[in-house]
Each structure stands twice: as structure tokens, then as C-alpha cells.
Design the sequence.
């Protein structure tokens, strides 16, 4: 999957849906790939990095994240492991950053420092960060 992402050629239903639902964004940021499919413009693609990461290890990236997507990933873990993974992500998520989970997932049954913003979207709880600083 990481190798496919590095190539970055998008085909099929997902890209057709993007094209029809957000035609302005599609026209602004996508171009036809050589052969079949579409690619993100090179000036955007050159800013992207793809690599493997085990969610049970701390994130070592130097910058904090605006967005962390764990869609359809947490569902495979026990509640205890979901807590572990989310606690490792929390320090690297910006105060105004967002954590996005999948439609079949929920954080209501586990103890985390995240608060819901809207369905499937969470921010870290500012008071939990303040507690850590104190
Ligand atoms: C059902 S797929 C979901 C993929 C994608 N997020 C989506 O919604 O299409 C679950 C993904 O979780 C990944 N995964 C499982 N355990 C992981 C771990 N410990 N660290 C990182 N990724 C993990 C798997 O490799 C797989 O790609």
C-alpha cells in the first residue's frame, strides 16, 4: 500500500467520486496520469512522504500533525490497545488538529484525552494537555 501511495496514481470509483463531488478541487489539484488514472500535481506530491509506522510505537516525526486518520484501524484492536494507540498519537496531534476514525468505530467506551467535534472527528482535549504540562 505504501508503494502504491508513493506512485500516487488514482483510478476507479474513489477518484470518480472526488471528480464529481468536488469538481473545482479536482481541476485545481489533479492531472491525468500517463496511461490510465489521475495524479496529484507534482508541486503537491513532492511535499508528501509515505512510510510504514507501527501504531504501537511513538510517532517520531519532528513536526506535529494537523490530521491523523485511523479509519477502520482501531476496530481490530482491544479497548486497551485502542487506548494505548490513541495515547501515543495525542502528543503529536496539534491543539487544533483532528483525529478521524471510521464509521464503525467509536471512542465512547474508552478513556482518552479526545473530545468529539462532530461524528467521527475528534480533537485532543486541551485540559488533558494542560494537566501534562503542570
Ligand atoms: C481495514 S484496513 C483500513 C485501511 C484504511 N485506513 C481504510 O480505511 O481503507 C486496516 C489497516 O490497519 C493497518 N494496521 C493494523 N495494525 C497496525 C499497526 N499496529 N500499526 C499500523 N497500522 C496497522 C493494516 O495494515 C491495514 O492497512
Sequence:
Amino acid at each position: 500500500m505504501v508503494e502504491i501511495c508513493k506512485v500516487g496514481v488514482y483510478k476507479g470509483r474513489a477518484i470518480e467520486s472526488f471528480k464529481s463531488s468536488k469538481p473545482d478541487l479536482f481541476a485545481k489539484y489533479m492531472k491525468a496520469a500517463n496511461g490510465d488514472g489521475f495524479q496529484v500535481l507534482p508541486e503537491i506530491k513532492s511535499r508528501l512522504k509515505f512510510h510504514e509506522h507501527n501504531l504501537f510505537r511513538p510517532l517520531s516525526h519532528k513536526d506535529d500533525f494537523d490530521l491523523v486518520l485511523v479509519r477502520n484501524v482501531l476496530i481490530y484492536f482491544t479497548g486497551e490497545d485502542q487506548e494505548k494507540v490513541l495515547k501515543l498519537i495525542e502528543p503529536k496531534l496539534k491543539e487544533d488538529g483532528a483525529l478521524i476514525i471510521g464509521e464503525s468505530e467509536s471512542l465512547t467506551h474508552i478513556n482518552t484525552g479526545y473530545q468529539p467535534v462532530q461524528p467521527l472527528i475528534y480533537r485532543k482535549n486541551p485540559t488533558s494537555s494542560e494537566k501534562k504540562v503542570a
About this structure: The chain has a mean pLDDT of 91. The chain has six helices and seven strands. The pocket of S-adenosylmethionine is lined by residues 53-56, 71-73 (CB under 6 Å).
